[in-house]
Amino acid sequence: MKKIQMVDLQTQYQSLKPVIDQNIQNVIDSARFINGPDVKSLQQELSDYLGVKHVITCGNGTDALQISLMALDLKPGDEVITADFTFAATVEVIGLLNLTPVLVDVNPDTFNIDLEQVKKAITPKTKAIIPVHLFGQAVDMEPLLKIAEEYNLYVVEDNAQAIGSEYKFSDGRVAKTGTMGTLGTTSFFPSKNLGCYGDGGAIFTNDDHLAHRLRGIVNHGMYKRYYHDEIGVNSRLDSIQATVLRTKLPYLDIYNEKRIQAATLYNRLLGDCEQVILPFHDAKSKHVFHQYTLRIKNGKRDALAEHLKEKNIPFGIYYPVPLHMQKAYMRDEFVHKNYPVTNQLVQEVISLPMHTELEVEQQEYICGIVLDLLKWKIE
Ligand SMILES: *Cc1c(COP(=O)(O)O)cnc(C)c1O
Q1: 61 CB within 6 A, ligand 1
Q2: Each residue of 99-115: pLDDT tens digit?
Q3: N or C: less crowded end of the chain, CB within 10 Å?
Q4: Per CATH, which fold does 9-105+112-250 belong to?
Protein backbone atom coordinates (compact mmCIF):
# COMPACT_ATOMS: atom_id res chain seq x y z
CA MET A 1 0.00 0.00 0.00
CA LYS A 2 1.20 3.50 -0.82
CA LYS A 3 2.05 5.70 2.18
CA ILE A 4 -1.10 7.45 3.40
CA GLN A 5 -0.94 11.24 3.28
CA MET A 6 -3.44 13.91 4.31
CA VAL A 7 -2.96 15.44 0.85
CA ASP A 8 -1.00 13.73 -1.92
CA LEU A 9 0.27 16.39 -4.29
CA GLN A 10 3.20 14.34 -5.62
CA THR A 11 1.07 11.64 -7.25
CA GLN A 12 -1.27 14.21 -8.77
CA TYR A 13 1.75 16.03 -10.22
CA GLN A 14 3.18 12.80 -11.70
CA SER A 15 0.05 12.32 -13.80
CA LEU A 16 0.51 15.76 -15.44
CA LYS A 17 4.29 16.06 -15.18
CA PRO A 18 5.27 16.30 -18.87
CA VAL A 19 2.70 19.04 -19.59
CA ILE A 20 3.30 20.98 -16.38
CA ASP A 21 7.07 20.86 -16.80
CA GLN A 22 6.83 22.05 -20.39
CA ASN A 23 4.43 24.87 -19.51
CA ILE A 24 6.61 26.08 -16.65
CA GLN A 25 9.65 25.93 -18.96
CA ASN A 26 7.75 28.02 -21.52
CA VAL A 27 7.12 30.74 -18.94
CA ILE A 28 10.80 30.75 -17.99
CA ASP A 29 11.82 30.91 -21.67
CA SER A 30 9.44 33.81 -22.27
CA ALA A 31 10.73 35.59 -19.13
CA ARG A 32 7.26 37.11 -18.72
CA PHE A 33 7.06 36.20 -15.08
CA ILE A 34 4.57 38.86 -13.96
CA ASN A 35 1.31 39.62 -15.74
CA GLY A 36 2.28 37.41 -18.64
CA PRO A 37 -0.22 36.01 -21.14
CA ASP A 38 -0.89 32.98 -18.92
CA VAL A 39 -2.37 35.21 -16.22
CA LYS A 40 -4.75 36.84 -18.70
CA SER A 41 -5.76 33.50 -20.18
CA LEU A 42 -6.31 31.97 -16.76
CA GLN A 43 -8.66 34.82 -15.80
CA GLN A 44 -10.67 34.24 -18.97
CA GLU A 45 -10.76 30.46 -18.54
CA LEU A 46 -11.84 30.73 -14.91
CA SER A 47 -14.50 33.21 -15.86
CA ASP A 48 -15.85 30.79 -18.49
CA TYR A 49 -15.71 27.86 -16.09
CA LEU A 50 -17.48 29.68 -13.27
CA GLY A 51 -19.96 31.58 -15.41
CA VAL A 52 -18.93 34.91 -13.92
CA LYS A 53 -18.11 38.09 -15.81
CA HIS A 54 -14.84 39.13 -14.16
CA VAL A 55 -11.99 37.22 -12.55
CA ILE A 56 -9.17 39.21 -10.94
CA THR A 57 -6.26 37.09 -9.79
CA CYS A 58 -4.13 38.08 -6.81
CA GLY A 59 -1.43 36.84 -4.45
CA ASN A 60 -3.42 34.52 -2.18
CA GLY A 61 -6.87 33.85 -0.74
CA THR A 62 -6.39 36.13 2.24
CA ASP A 63 -5.47 39.05 -0.01
CA ALA A 64 -8.53 38.23 -2.12
CA LEU A 65 -10.73 38.78 0.94
CA GLN A 66 -8.91 41.93 2.01
CA ILE A 67 -8.97 43.49 -1.45
CA SER A 68 -12.66 42.66 -1.76
CA LEU A 69 -13.48 44.52 1.44
CA MET A 70 -11.29 47.45 0.29
CA ALA A 71 -13.23 47.67 -2.98
CA LEU A 72 -16.52 47.93 -1.08
CA ASP A 73 -15.32 51.18 0.54
CA LEU A 74 -16.25 50.08 4.04
CA LYS A 75 -15.43 52.53 6.83
CA PRO A 76 -13.76 51.81 10.17
CA GLY A 77 -16.43 50.66 12.58
CA ASP A 78 -18.65 49.17 9.89
CA GLU A 79 -19.74 45.71 10.96
CA VAL A 80 -19.06 42.60 8.91
CA ILE A 81 -20.78 39.36 9.86
CA THR A 82 -19.05 36.02 9.44
CA ALA A 83 -18.95 32.54 10.93
CA ASP A 84 -17.32 31.62 14.25
CA PHE A 85 -16.23 28.29 12.77
CA THR A 86 -13.86 28.91 9.84
CA PHE A 87 -10.21 29.51 9.04
CA ALA A 88 -9.01 32.72 10.69
CA ALA A 89 -8.18 34.53 7.43
CA THR A 90 -11.81 35.50 7.04
CA VAL A 91 -11.97 37.44 10.29
CA GLU A 92 -8.34 38.56 10.11
CA VAL A 93 -8.89 40.83 7.12
CA ILE A 94 -11.97 42.38 8.73
CA GLY A 95 -9.79 43.35 11.69
CA LEU A 96 -6.88 44.51 9.54
CA LEU A 97 -9.11 47.05 7.83
CA ASN A 98 -10.38 48.34 11.20
CA LEU A 99 -13.82 47.02 10.44
CA THR A 100 -15.73 45.34 13.24
CA PRO A 101 -16.02 41.56 12.96
CA VAL A 102 -19.31 40.12 14.17
CA LEU A 103 -19.06 36.38 14.66
CA VAL A 104 -22.13 34.18 14.61
CA ASP A 105 -22.68 30.49 15.30
CA VAL A 106 -22.99 27.83 12.62
CA ASN A 107 -25.42 25.13 11.58
CA PRO A 108 -24.64 21.80 13.29
CA ASP A 109 -25.25 19.78 10.11
CA THR A 110 -23.51 21.77 7.38
CA PHE A 111 -21.03 23.60 9.68
CA ASN A 112 -21.92 26.70 7.63
CA ILE A 113 -23.09 30.07 8.95
CA ASP A 114 -26.48 29.93 10.74
CA LEU A 115 -28.86 32.27 8.95
CA GLU A 116 -31.11 32.79 11.97
CA GLN A 117 -28.04 34.01 13.86
CA VAL A 118 -27.08 36.24 10.94
CA LYS A 119 -30.48 37.95 11.10
CA LYS A 120 -30.16 38.48 14.85
CA ALA A 121 -26.68 39.99 14.45
CA ILE A 122 -27.70 42.70 11.99
CA THR A 123 -27.52 46.28 13.30
CA PRO A 124 -27.65 49.67 11.55
CA LYS A 125 -23.84 49.45 11.28
CA THR A 126 -23.83 46.12 9.44
CA LYS A 127 -22.49 46.52 5.91
CA ALA A 128 -21.50 43.06 4.72
CA ILE A 129 -21.74 39.32 5.29
CA ILE A 130 -18.95 36.88 4.49
CA PRO A 131 -20.41 33.39 4.11
CA VAL A 132 -17.74 30.67 3.95
CA HIS A 133 -18.53 27.57 1.90
CA LEU A 134 -16.82 25.42 4.50
CA PHE A 135 -15.13 22.11 3.67
CA GLY A 136 -16.53 22.26 0.10
CA GLN A 137 -20.26 22.61 0.77
CA ALA A 138 -22.26 25.65 -0.35
CA VAL A 139 -23.91 27.91 2.20
CA ASP A 140 -27.70 28.07 1.78
CA MET A 141 -27.36 31.12 -0.47
CA GLU A 142 -30.96 31.79 -1.48
CA PRO A 143 -32.19 32.82 1.98
CA LEU A 144 -28.84 34.50 2.68
CA LEU A 145 -29.13 36.64 -0.44
CA LYS A 146 -32.70 37.54 0.59
CA ILE A 147 -31.49 38.75 3.98
CA ALA A 148 -28.70 40.73 2.28
CA GLU A 149 -31.18 42.35 -0.08
CA GLU A 150 -33.62 43.19 2.68
CA TYR A 151 -30.94 44.91 4.78
CA ASN A 152 -28.91 46.25 1.85
CA LEU A 153 -25.74 44.32 2.71
CA TYR A 154 -22.83 43.27 0.52
CA VAL A 155 -22.12 39.56 0.29
CA VAL A 156 -18.52 38.37 -0.12
CA GLU A 157 -18.42 34.60 -0.58
CA ASP A 158 -15.26 33.01 0.80
CA ASN A 159 -14.95 30.17 -1.70
CA ALA A 160 -11.41 29.12 -0.75
CA GLN A 161 -12.56 25.59 0.09
CA ALA A 162 -15.28 25.03 -2.47
CA ILE A 163 -14.16 25.92 -5.99
CA GLY A 164 -16.25 23.91 -8.44
CA SER A 165 -19.10 23.48 -5.96
CA GLU A 166 -22.61 24.50 -7.01
CA TYR A 167 -25.81 25.73 -5.42
CA LYS A 168 -29.30 25.05 -6.66
CA PHE A 169 -31.94 27.77 -6.26
CA SER A 170 -35.60 26.89 -5.70
CA ASP A 171 -36.44 27.84 -9.32
CA GLY A 172 -33.97 25.20 -10.52
CA ARG A 173 -31.22 27.64 -11.47
CA VAL A 174 -27.77 26.35 -10.62
CA ALA A 175 -24.82 28.66 -9.87
CA LYS A 176 -21.20 27.97 -9.03
CA THR A 177 -20.16 28.97 -5.52
CA GLY A 178 -18.30 32.27 -5.46
CA THR A 179 -20.46 33.81 -8.19
CA MET A 180 -23.71 34.55 -6.31
CA GLY A 181 -22.69 37.35 -3.97
CA THR A 182 -21.46 40.86 -4.66
CA LEU A 183 -17.98 39.38 -4.76
CA GLY A 184 -16.48 35.92 -4.37
CA THR A 185 -12.94 34.98 -3.42
CA THR A 186 -10.80 31.88 -3.62
CA SER A 187 -7.36 30.56 -2.74
CA PHE A 188 -5.04 28.48 -4.91
CA PHE A 189 -2.97 27.29 -1.95
CA PRO A 190 -1.47 23.94 -3.06
CA SER A 191 -3.80 21.75 -1.00
CA LYS A 192 -7.04 23.50 -2.04
CA ASN A 193 -9.28 21.77 -4.59
CA LEU A 194 -7.62 23.80 -7.35
CA GLY A 195 -4.11 24.43 -6.08
CA CYS A 196 -1.01 25.93 -7.67
CA TYR A 197 2.64 25.33 -6.74
CA GLY A 198 2.95 28.26 -4.39
CA ASP A 199 0.52 30.96 -3.28
CA GLY A 200 -2.32 32.31 -5.37
CA GLY A 201 -5.84 33.68 -5.16
CA ALA A 202 -8.65 35.25 -7.15
CA ILE A 203 -11.72 37.44 -6.85
CA PHE A 204 -14.93 36.97 -8.87
CA THR A 205 -17.65 39.47 -9.70
CA ASN A 206 -20.35 40.28 -12.23
CA ASP A 207 -20.13 43.99 -11.37
CA ASP A 208 -18.12 46.03 -13.95
CA HIS A 209 -17.45 48.92 -11.61
CA LEU A 210 -16.19 46.70 -8.79
CA ALA A 211 -14.04 44.74 -11.25
CA HIS A 212 -12.37 47.99 -12.30
CA ARG A 213 -11.77 48.96 -8.67
CA LEU A 214 -10.34 45.52 -7.85
CA ARG A 215 -7.89 45.67 -10.77
CA GLY A 216 -6.67 49.04 -9.49
CA ILE A 217 -6.40 48.04 -5.83
CA VAL A 218 -4.34 44.89 -6.54
CA ASN A 219 -1.91 47.12 -8.42
CA HIS A 220 -1.01 49.91 -5.93
CA GLY A 221 -4.25 51.80 -6.53
CA MET A 222 -3.10 52.53 -10.08
CA TYR A 223 -5.74 53.01 -12.75
CA LYS A 224 -3.34 54.72 -15.11
CA ARG A 225 0.35 53.87 -15.09
CA TYR A 226 2.08 55.79 -12.27
CA TYR A 227 -1.08 57.66 -11.29
CA HIS A 228 -2.17 56.43 -7.87
CA ASP A 229 -5.76 57.35 -7.15
CA GLU A 230 -5.99 55.49 -3.86
CA ILE A 231 -3.91 53.39 -1.52
CA GLY A 232 -3.84 49.87 -2.85
CA VAL A 233 -1.70 46.80 -2.35
CA ASN A 234 0.73 44.76 -4.40
CA SER A 235 -0.91 41.40 -4.82
CA ARG A 236 -0.48 39.36 -7.96
CA LEU A 237 -0.47 35.82 -9.23
CA ASP A 238 2.75 35.10 -11.11
CA SER A 239 2.85 33.50 -14.54
CA ILE A 240 4.33 30.22 -13.32
CA GLN A 241 1.41 29.74 -10.94
CA ALA A 242 -1.00 30.79 -13.67
CA THR A 243 0.29 28.18 -16.09
CA VAL A 244 0.07 25.46 -13.44
CA LEU A 245 -3.54 26.47 -12.76
CA ARG A 246 -4.35 26.59 -16.49
CA THR A 247 -3.02 23.06 -16.82
CA LYS A 248 -5.07 21.81 -13.87
CA LEU A 249 -8.34 23.71 -14.43
CA PRO A 250 -9.63 21.30 -17.14
CA TYR A 251 -9.31 18.52 -14.53
CA LEU A 252 -11.05 20.36 -11.69
CA ASP A 253 -14.39 18.62 -12.17
CA ILE A 254 -12.65 15.25 -12.35
CA TYR A 255 -10.65 16.08 -9.23
CA ASN A 256 -13.81 17.05 -7.38
CA GLU A 257 -15.53 13.87 -8.61
CA LYS A 258 -12.65 11.83 -7.15
CA ARG A 259 -13.10 13.58 -3.83
CA ILE A 260 -16.82 12.86 -3.90
CA GLN A 261 -16.13 9.19 -4.67
CA ALA A 262 -13.66 8.96 -1.81
CA ALA A 263 -16.22 10.57 0.52
CA THR A 264 -18.87 8.10 -0.63
CA LEU A 265 -16.57 5.19 0.20
CA TYR A 266 -15.73 6.64 3.64
CA ASN A 267 -19.47 7.03 4.26
CA ARG A 268 -20.08 3.41 3.34
CA LEU A 269 -17.22 2.10 5.46
CA LEU A 270 -18.09 4.18 8.53
CA GLY A 271 -21.86 4.47 8.14
CA ASP A 272 -22.78 1.70 10.58
CA CYS A 273 -20.74 3.05 13.46
CA GLU A 274 -22.95 4.67 16.07
CA GLN A 275 -20.16 6.78 17.44
CA VAL A 276 -19.63 8.85 14.30
CA ILE A 277 -21.76 11.44 12.57
CA LEU A 278 -21.00 11.37 8.86
CA PRO A 279 -20.70 14.63 6.88
CA PHE A 280 -24.17 15.97 6.17
CA HIS A 281 -24.96 16.63 2.54
CA ASP A 282 -27.38 19.46 1.78
CA ALA A 283 -29.27 18.46 -1.39
CA LYS A 284 -29.11 22.06 -2.67
CA SER A 285 -25.32 21.94 -2.72
CA LYS A 286 -22.75 19.98 -4.66
CA HIS A 287 -20.36 19.07 -1.86
CA VAL A 288 -16.80 18.96 -3.27
CA PHE A 289 -15.21 17.68 -0.04
CA HIS A 290 -12.25 19.94 0.47
CA GLN A 291 -12.29 18.13 3.80
CA TYR A 292 -13.99 14.93 4.85
CA THR A 293 -14.98 15.82 8.38
CA LEU A 294 -16.59 13.50 10.90
CA ARG A 295 -18.09 14.32 14.26
CA ILE A 296 -17.10 11.81 16.92
CA LYS A 297 -19.65 11.42 19.69
CA ASN A 298 -19.30 10.61 23.40
CA GLY A 299 -16.12 12.63 23.93
CA LYS A 300 -14.03 10.12 21.98
CA ARG A 301 -12.52 12.48 19.40
CA ASP A 302 -9.24 13.05 21.23
CA ALA A 303 -8.80 9.34 21.91
CA LEU A 304 -9.35 8.67 18.21
CA ALA A 305 -6.81 11.34 17.28
CA GLU A 306 -4.29 9.74 19.63
CA HIS A 307 -5.00 6.31 18.16
CA LEU A 308 -4.52 7.55 14.58
CA LYS A 309 -1.27 9.23 15.58
CA GLU A 310 0.02 5.95 17.03
CA LYS A 311 -0.87 4.15 13.82
CA ASN A 312 0.77 6.85 11.67
CA ILE A 313 -2.45 7.87 9.98
CA PRO A 314 -2.57 11.57 9.22
CA PHE A 315 -5.68 13.55 10.20
CA GLY A 316 -6.66 17.15 10.81
CA ILE A 317 -8.63 18.99 13.47
CA TYR A 318 -10.28 21.82 11.56
CA TYR A 319 -10.75 23.86 13.69
CA PRO A 320 -9.68 23.29 17.29
CA VAL A 321 -10.58 26.74 18.68
CA PRO A 322 -13.64 28.88 17.87
CA LEU A 323 -12.68 32.28 16.48
CA HIS A 324 -14.50 34.02 19.35
CA MET A 325 -11.97 32.41 21.73
CA GLN A 326 -8.85 33.29 19.74
CA LYS A 327 -6.69 35.84 21.56
CA ALA A 328 -6.44 38.02 18.47
CA TYR A 329 -10.18 38.25 17.90
CA MET A 330 -11.81 38.18 21.35
CA ARG A 331 -14.32 40.96 22.00
CA ASP A 332 -16.55 41.56 25.00
CA GLU A 333 -19.51 41.29 22.65
CA PHE A 334 -18.68 37.65 21.91
CA VAL A 335 -20.44 35.80 24.72
CA HIS A 336 -19.20 32.20 24.91
CA LYS A 337 -22.61 30.67 25.48
CA ASN A 338 -23.95 32.23 22.30
CA TYR A 339 -21.86 29.78 20.26
CA PRO A 340 -23.15 26.40 21.43
CA VAL A 341 -22.70 24.69 18.06
CA THR A 342 -19.15 25.87 17.38
CA ASN A 343 -18.20 25.14 21.00
CA GLN A 344 -19.34 21.56 20.51
CA LEU A 345 -17.91 21.11 17.00
CA VAL A 346 -14.38 22.07 18.05
CA GLN A 347 -14.49 19.12 20.44
CA GLU A 348 -16.02 16.62 18.02
CA VAL A 349 -14.63 17.21 14.52
CA ILE A 350 -11.86 15.24 12.89
CA SER A 351 -10.93 15.27 9.21
CA LEU A 352 -9.59 12.16 7.50
CA PRO A 353 -7.13 12.12 4.57
CA MET A 354 -8.87 13.59 1.51
CA HIS A 355 -7.37 14.20 -1.91
CA THR A 356 -7.63 13.13 -5.53
CA GLU A 357 -5.28 10.15 -5.29
CA LEU A 358 -6.77 8.13 -2.40
CA GLU A 359 -6.90 4.41 -3.04
CA VAL A 360 -9.65 2.04 -1.90
CA GLU A 361 -7.08 -0.03 -0.01
CA GLN A 362 -5.86 3.06 1.87
CA GLN A 363 -9.38 4.09 2.82
CA GLU A 364 -10.23 0.59 4.02
CA TYR A 365 -7.09 0.61 6.12
CA ILE A 366 -7.88 4.05 7.60
CA CYS A 367 -11.47 3.10 8.40
CA GLY A 368 -10.38 -0.20 9.91
CA ILE A 369 -8.23 1.71 12.36
CA VAL A 370 -10.95 4.26 13.10
CA LEU A 371 -13.48 1.49 13.77
CA ASP A 372 -10.95 -0.49 15.73
CA LEU A 373 -10.89 2.26 18.33
CA LEU A 374 -14.59 2.93 18.16
CA LYS A 375 -15.15 -0.83 18.67
CA TRP A 376 -16.83 -1.62 15.45
CA LYS A 377 -14.98 -3.82 12.99
CA ILE A 378 -15.42 -3.94 9.23
CA GLU A 379 -16.51 -7.48 8.31
C1 LIG B 1 -7.28 28.78 2.73
C2 LIG B 1 -8.33 29.70 3.16
C3 LIG B 1 -8.18 31.10 3.09
C4 LIG B 1 -6.87 31.77 2.81
O5 LIG B 1 -6.25 31.43 1.64
P6 LIG B 1 -4.66 31.70 1.51
O7 LIG B 1 -4.42 31.50 0.05
O8 LIG B 1 -3.99 30.67 2.35
O9 LIG B 1 -4.38 33.08 1.94
C10 LIG B 1 -9.27 31.89 3.42
N11 LIG B 1 -10.42 31.37 3.82
C12 LIG B 1 -10.60 30.03 3.94
C13 LIG B 1 -11.92 29.52 4.38
C14 LIG B 1 -9.56 29.16 3.63
O15 LIG B 1 -9.75 27.85 3.76
Answers
A1: yes
A2: 999 999 999 999 999 99
A3: C
A4: Aspartate Aminotransferase; domain 2 (3.40.640)
